[in-house]
Design brief:
The longest helix is centred in the N-terminal third of the chain and has 25 residues. Helix 3 packs antiparallel against helix 4 and helix 6 runs parallel beside helix 13. This protein has 2 domains: 257 residues, nicotinate phosphoribosyltransferase (Alpha-Beta Barrel), CATH 3.20.140; 175 residues, Aldolase class I (TIM Barrel, Alpha-Beta Barrel), CATH 3.20.20. The protein is built from 17 helices and 19 strands. The protein is an alpha/beta fold and 447 residues long. Catalyzes the first step in the biosynthesis of NAD from nicotinic acid, the ATP-dependent synthesis of beta-nicotinate D-ribonucleotide from nicotinate and 5-phospho-D-ribose 1-phosphate.
């Protein structure tokens, strides 16, 4: 069984609540919204991702016969409920921000409108899909802004928290503007460009380092990238200068070298000098090896001659902010607005829309969150994507999503683009939304 395709990939309490709803006949229309409550300390904005997987999940949502039989054997649920589950399909509507859209706290990026049991049952997997890719896309967006047009490649599969995480991290980072990934299956599934060099073990397998370089070059002459720091980085650079004429005689050109350890700023400068003196001015220098925001910023700010970065662990684990405080909450049921009042976790009622305003320079300047039928100036960010359980439009290409992400990042206010930790962004709550919240509170007090 492919676990991610199973409706059992959920929390037990979702099934328990669904059984109780159905037993009481609570099948009115419910509205749930997914949003992030607050930004991590190291984030000034987030980038929406994961919608395509969320839509695919809802389109195919069903309990298989094996699922039903297993639930029956568990003894936790009644026969009537299991019979209803066997025929249950998602038949609701979905509004969402397109993938690659910048957003901020308390702005819904997805809204589900469906019969209450359906909207409840899909909660866990929707959060799982939207949270992870949004987390990684938001991290990758920082790297894109920091790199300042240098090449970025995802090296993170081996330390991702599982295979699916590695695949979806490759997708999310590509959406945000990474140039490609080392994860081969991501190349097949998502048509993401693949990049690969060589490991230290390959060099160690040969008695002579230059022999290792030559063997690899002969085997993979196209887009040739060699790893320099297995032993002595500068000595390896000099060996390449000596080897290059023999390779060129066979029509082989070295595209780049990779530095994976040591003082990357100092080593990149010394290698660049050796290459330039030896006639290898067109050979690029790539850096990897535990890179994160601070190291990348230091290299860029120093003017170190690094042409690209391979980023692994810090990307696929979003190491400085490994989780987002996100939620999927009920905002309306059976035609009446609903609101949670838990301390520190209050929600706002009603079906909401996010309107974005832009300044004369074309940059984002403010957002307004209010009720969807309000007349608010700005560009509406939530769009209809599913109706009655069916997708409304064909899936966009990853190229289209990348283009949207690029435009979103380009239209950020400059302090946010510069990743200024003190930068903020104005998000306003509409007056009608606040009035509705007060009215809901008053009615609750009167009950």
């Amino acid at each position: 069984m492919n676990c991610p395709d199973s409706a059992l990939l959920t929390d037990l309490y979702q099934l328990k609540m669904a059984e109780a709803y159905l037993a009481r006949g609570e099948q009115g229309t419910a509205v749930f919204e997914f949003f992030v409550r607050r930004l991590p300390p190291t984030r000034g904005f987030l980038l929406a991702a994961g919608l395509e997987q969320a839509i695919a999940f809802l389109e195919s949502y069903a309990f298989s016969r094996d699922d039903i039989d297993w639930l029956a054997s568990s003894g936790m649920f009644g026969a009537a409920f299991l019979e209803q589950l066997a025929s249950l399909r998602f038949a609701g509507d979905v509004h969402a921000m397109p993938e690659g859209t910048v957003f901020f706290p308390d702005e819904p990026i997805l809204r589900v409108t469906a019969p209450l049991p359906q909207a409840q049952l899909v909660e866990t997997r929707l959060i799982n899909l939207l949270h992870f890719q949004t987390l990684i896309a938001s991290k990758a967006a920082r790297h894109v802004l920091l790199a300042q047009n240098r090449q970025l490649v995802d090296f993170g599969l081996r330390r991702a928290h599982g295979g699916d995480a590695g695949l979806l991290a490759a997708r999310a980072s590509y959406i945000a503007g990474y140039d490609g990934t080392a994860t081969v299956l991501a190349g097949r599934l998502f048509d993401i460009p693949l990049f690969g060099t060589m490991a230290h073990s390959f060099v160690q397998a040969f008695d002579d380092e230059a022999e290792a370089f030559e063997a690899f070059a002969e085997s993979h002459p196209e887009d040739l990238v060699l790893l320099l720091d297995t032993y002595d980085t500068e000595a390896a650079a000099r060996k390449l200068v000596t080897l290059t004429p023999r390779l060129r005689a066979r029509g082989i050109s070295i595209k780049a070298v990779r530095l994976d350890s040591g003082d990357l700023i100092a080593l990149s400068r010394s290698v660049r000098a050796i290459f330039d003196e030896g006639g290898l001015r067109d050979v690029a220098i790539l850096a990897s090896g535990g890179l994160d925001d601070a190291e990348m910023r230091a290299i860029v700010d120093s003017g170190g001659p690094v042409d690209g970065f391979g980023v692994g662990t810090s990307l696929t684990t979003s190491i400085d902010a490994p989780a987002l405080d996100c939620a999927y909450k009920l905002t309306e049921y059976a035609g009446r607005p609903r609101r949670k009042r838990s301390i520190g976790k209050e929600t706002l009622p009603g079906r909401k829309q996010v309107w974005r305003r832009f300044g004369p320079d074309g940059r984002m300047c403010a957002d307004v969150v209010s009720l969807e039928d309000d007349a608010v100036a700005g560009e509406a960010q939530l769009q209809p994507v599913m109706r009655a359980g069916k997708r409304l439009l064909p899936p966009p290409t990853l190229g289209d999503i990348r283009a949207r992400s690029k435009e979103s990042l380009a239209r950020l206010p400059e302090p946010l683009r510069a990743l200024d930790p003190a930068a903020g962004y104005h998000v306003e709550r509409g007056g009608s939304l606040l009035t509705l919240a007060r009215n809901v509170d008053r009615r609750r007090r009167e009950v």
